[in-house]
Amino acid sequence: MLKPDIHDKRxxxxxxxxxxxxxxxxxxGPQEAFQALVQHFYRELxxxxxxxxxxxxxxxxxxxxxxxxxxxxxxxxxxxxxxRPYLYKSLRRKIHREMMRHTSVTGEDGFVFDDVSSxxxxxxxxxxxxxxxxxxxxxxxxxxxxxxxxQREAIHLKFYGELSxxxxxxxxxxxxxxxxxLLHRGLRRLRESWPSLxxxxxxxxxxxxxx
Length: 211
Fold this sequence. Notes:
The chain has helices spanning about 15, 20-25, 30-50, 55-70, 85-100, 135-145, 150-160, 165-170, 175-195, 195-200. By secondary structure, it is mainly alpha-helical. Helix 3 crosses helix 5, helix 7 packs across helix 9 (about 175-195) and helix 8 (about 165-170) crosses helix 9. Mean pLDDT is about 75; it is low at about 1-15, about 115-120 and about 200-210. Keywords: Sigma factor, Transcription, Transcription regulation. It comes from Larkinella punicea.
């Protein structure tokens, strides 16, 4: 419910397959399984990667490198149920490495989790279970911009990637408590700045900061 439908409704049998099974089938080598894996995850990974850089060529290269590595080393990749965290972390690392090569980024402090400027629904807007007016959407986006990069990224991974705090901690290279703090502080700031937002999002939202 929290995650927007980012896949074409005309899903084929591969797309409907359980992700763990799809990963296993990909590791066994069939090219069609690999193509299904790419199709299944490409858009959400591209959306996540696009929050770090507006250089479409850099992002495209990192995406290609990620999937090329998967195909090349598929026989050595272990079976795991943590597929989405594995892919998110791998792409994040590749983008960071490329940005350090081509820009002045020297560490996590310069690795900014930015806001998208397209008309596509943002990850944070996926928090909203009902349609917001243009004014409400603009107000929410303005509040989100006041959060730290880490808070916005944690919220993205929690509500768009549907990851656990433990999985987010692995991606961000922090401990689980730090993730809980990021989510709690970010959501608390939204609540303090706009108390009635809870009636639009749902009171259960704040509980996610501790799971």
